[in-house]
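Field log, afternoon session.

UNIT: design team B
ACTIVITY: writing a sequence onto a fixed backbone
BACKBONE:
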């Protein structure tokens, strides 16, 4: 293969890649026991501090704060996260792992919530993919009835968002186009790491993840007009 033909093929690939949808959200079903969810019909939800297996230390705060709006819009009363965090600390629970280890009965006793949402973050932040830079969020969540310990809903999500491209001028011709694409991706990764791109992606990911309008989402709660229509 000649050098020119090689660059033509790479350029074609680059053009196709840049035409991809800039925001992709995929939710994978792990456990779809909607019968249990319908029987339980929780009214209030306690969101536990997320476990963080990513390299971003601020990821739990972003994800925790981003759960409130979609859950409330889906029709649930959410135990205020600031209050729940304070009560955890007052009870000697300092880490997310400690919070996740508390028994369902004890959580029910302290917060009087019907259900608890457990979240584990496995990936959060910017990623360099040679020809582009993207922001990725990967997490899993499960909703458990605190009255009987029954698993109501469990999902994994992989969310990818490609922020607007930064322009870069590096030479001319096909070779220059490839170098420009690589340079642009590198610049974008630095910008995404230092800006609010990751935080925006976290909010968008949770908005998609916990939306009751999704076919594989949680059911509508009692404070939503669509309650018991799903």
């Amino acid at each position: 293969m000649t050098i020119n033909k090689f660059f033509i093929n790479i350029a074609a690939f680059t053009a196709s890649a840049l035409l991809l949808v800039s925001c992709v959200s995929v939710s994978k079903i792990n456990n779809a026991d909607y019968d249990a969810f319908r029987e339980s019909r929780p009214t209030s939800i306690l969101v536990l501090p997320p476990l963080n297996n990513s390299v971003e230390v601020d990821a739990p705060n972003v994800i925790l704060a981003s759960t409130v709006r979609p859950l409330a819009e889906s029709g649930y009363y959410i135990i205020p996260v600031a209050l729940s965090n304070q009560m955890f600390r007052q009870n000697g629970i300092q880490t997310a792992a400690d919070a996740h280890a508390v028994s369902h009965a004890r959580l029910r006793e302290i917060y009087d919530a019907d259900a608890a949402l457990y979240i584990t973050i496995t990936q959060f932040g910017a990623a360099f993919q040679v020809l582009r830079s993207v922001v990725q969020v990967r997490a899993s969540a499960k909703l458990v009835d605190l009255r009987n310990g029954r698993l109501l809903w469990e999902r994994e999500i992989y969310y990818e968002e490609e922020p607007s491209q930064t322009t870069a001028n590096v030479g001319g011709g096909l070779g220059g186009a490839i170098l420009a694409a690589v340079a642009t991706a590198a610049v974008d990764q630095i910008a995404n790491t230092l800006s609010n791109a990751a935080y925006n992606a976290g909010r968008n990911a949770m908005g998609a993840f916990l939306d009751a309008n999704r076919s594989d989402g949680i059911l509508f709660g009692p404070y939503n007009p669509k309650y018991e229509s799903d």
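LOG NOTE: The chain has eight helices and seven strands.
NEXT ACTIVITY: expression trials, pending approval
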